[in-house]
Each structure stands twice: as structure tokens, then as C-alpha cells.
From TrEMBL:
The lineage of its organism: Bacteria, Pseudomonadati, Pseudomonadota, Alphaproteobacteria, Rhodobacterales. InterPro entries: Cyt_c-like_dom (IPR009056), Cyt_c-like_dom_sf (IPR036909). Residues 1-19 form the signal peptide. PROSITE patterns: CYTC. It comes from Albidovulum marisflavi. This is Cytochrome c. Keywords: Heme, Iron, Metal-binding, Signal.
Length: 245
């Protein structure tokens, strides 16, 4: 919210011509990342979400994606190579892109991309003590989304329907060290791609393999709300003794 306010104030102060210019920014991306098709995949999703667009340049961008240095925190990685995003100028559209790339939809776009060959991209674990992840969104709405859709298979809340016995509950998932990544990328993890679609993120269903059950379709705002709710779920004690009830 603070970032959006700063961008708004800067835009108004600079005048209408400058404001129009700042709806786009120049982005340099190291060639090996360009060649995978990742940037072509994620930029339309950024534009749909924010109304801003990136113009790919060969040098001197407002923002640059390059191989991360030894003391840099990479925003994305492929295999053993990490890549960091650096803001070179004060262009607000570039700053907005940096924020989006680190957000749940941005991270999901990175991990949802499937290269034609070679390893997929992933979001590296942050070096700083992985403090409890927090997501912006309407947790109350996320609870209703989880009850309406996720409870088909998962137990969403204690004392509620059990779902399918072979699927982990939300509380069990929250107890895993990579719970935040699992929730952010659930829609590309089997079996979800066969019946789940998130607006502006998911690819269309394959006409040759239509969903075997009623499809689950949610918006980006509902996705962010679901993440906010998941972050509030109390983790299960996976080391506790089994209790018969």
C-alpha cells in the first residue's frame, strides 16, 4: 500500500506527460533467460494485473535481470544459477514490477512456466531466516474460498468435513517448511492442473483432456485471499501421537 501511495504521489508531481511515460519501463534481461521464453510468459500477466508494461532493451534498462552475485538474493533461479532483479532508475513502473515479481502471483508465474527443454525455473529460498510468510489479501474471503472449493479433497478446518483421506489437511500442509511455496504453486502441482484455473495465470484446459470433475475457477484476488487465509491456519503437530476419536 505504501509503495502504491509513493508511486501515485510521484506521478502527480511529475505531470501528465511524465505520468504517461511511467506506465512503461525499459527492462534488460540476460539472454539465457530471454531464450527460455520465461519473460514472454510472465510479462503479459504483470501487465494484466497492473496496467504497466515492460519494453525489453539490449542495455541500460530501468530494471535489469542478471545472474545474481555471491551476496545477492536471487528472485528466480534455474538449476544452480540464480538471477536477481536490480532497479537502476527510479521509474515507478519498474518498482511496481519488482514488487509484483516478489508477490504471490509473480512467484506463481515464475514456477508455473514450463520451458521447452531443460530444468524449470524456481523461486530460491530466502537466505534470511524464512520468517513466517505473510500475504496481503482478504483472509475471511480466503476462508470461504477454501470451504467452497478446497474442502472437496482437503480438510480445511478442524471439526469440519474430512475431505479425501489421502490428501493432507491445510493444517498438515502448514506444518511443512515449504508450505508457502506449496500454496503459491498448488495450481501447477498434480492433480490440480487438470481441473483448476486461476484467472490470468493458468493455461487453458487441453480440449483433448477436459476436466473430469467440475472445474475450479478463481480470480487473482481470490487466489491472494486464499493465500492470506492459509497463512493464518495453525500448523498441525506432525510429531504428536495419533489419537483415536
Amino acid at each position: 500500500m505504501l509503495l502504491r501511495l509513493v508511486i501515485l504521489v510521484a506521478s502527480l508531481a511529475a505531470g501528465s506527460v511524465r505520468a504517461e511515460e511511467e506506465r512503461s519501463f525499459a527492462l534488460f534481461v540476460t539472454p539465457e533467460v530471454i531464450e527460455t521464453g520465461l519473460i514472454e510468459y510472465i510479462l503479459p500477466r504483470f501487465t494484466l494485473k497492473t496496467g504497466r508494461r515492460a519494453v525489453i532493451v539490449n542495455s541500460d534498462g530501468d530494471a535489469e535481470i542478471r545472474v545474481a552475485g555471491p551476496n545477492e538474493q536471487p528472485q528466480l533461479a534455474r538449476g544452480d544459477t540464480g538471477y536477481s532483479l536490480t532497479l537502476v532508475t527510479d521509474n515507478p513502473a519498474a518498482a511496481l514490477f519488482a514488487g509484483w515479481l516478489s508477490s504471490a502471483p509473480g512467484r506463481a508465474a515464475i514456477t508455473g512456466f514450463e520451458p521447452g527443454e531443460g530444468p524449470a525455473f524456481h523461486v530460491p529460498e530466502r537466505k534470511e531466516a524464512l520468517a513466517e510468510a505473510a500475504f496481503e489479501g482478504d483472509a475471511a474471503l480466503g476462508r470461504e474460498i477454501a470451504r467452497r472449493h478446497c474442502a472437496r479433497c482437503h480438510r480445511v478446518e478442524e471439526g469440519k468435513a474430512m475431505g479425501i483421506g489421502t490428501t493432507p489437511s491445510f493444517a498438515a500442509l502448514r506444518a511443512l517448511p515449504d508450505w508457502d511455496e506449496r500454496f503459491q504453486t498448488f495450481f501447477v502441482r498434480r492433480p490440480h492442473p487438470t481441473f483448476v484455473q486461476i484467472e490470468d495465470l493458468s493455461a487453458p484446459f487441453d480440449p483433448a483432456s477436459p476436466p473430469a470433475i467440475v472445474p475450479l475457477k478463481i480470480t487473482l484476488d481470490e487466489f491472494e485471499a486464499l493465500l492470506a487465509y492459509a497463512s493464518d491456519v495453525k500448523p498441525a503437530d506432525l510429531g504428536a501421537q495419533i489419537q483415536n476419536r
